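Quick one: Response regulator transcription factor from Roseicella aerolata, structure tokens please.
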Amino acid sequence: MADTPLKPPPAAEAAPHRAPVAVALRQAEPELTARLAALPGLRLVADPDAADVLVAEAPSPAREGPPVLVLAEGAAAVAALKAGARAVLPPEAPAAQLEAALTAVARGLSVLPPGALATLAGREPVPVEAGLTRREREVLDLLAAGASNKVIARRLNLSFHTAKAHVASVLQKLGASSRADAVARGARAGLVLL
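--- reply ---
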């Protein structure tokens, strides 16, 4: 029996390259513009008609053009949805959440906070356990990604002990008994996307 040479496995097909999501701002605030410009999957455009998604900081009546993502909370979030917004996020939403939501909206999906969804459905909303700082929301996002305290420290350029303190603060503020419980509570409150 002759040895047959082994064939190398077929090369893995490259994942299709997706063009960055074109985003326009209704009101170009410097901080929001800088946050969005730093996201690799997005491309800022000046003309709203050339955008895949329009970002606004206040609800507005339904209009023609690209779908709208509104940065609002509470009653303003519900008003934005009733006015035709496709997505609503808190104004202090972490960068990863903004990018994920804008990508989802550009692909035809909606992003709704759980409390707003319950209100629109005529049910009592689940109370949002808020009070998290921007840094704590970033920590919660990393917890949702399964990051250890060491990874959180490295990604956020913090000391290990500071990262550990932020994790403890997130757990305490959410009333969570574990990291997984904090992520689950954060997801139910609309603070983190899974």
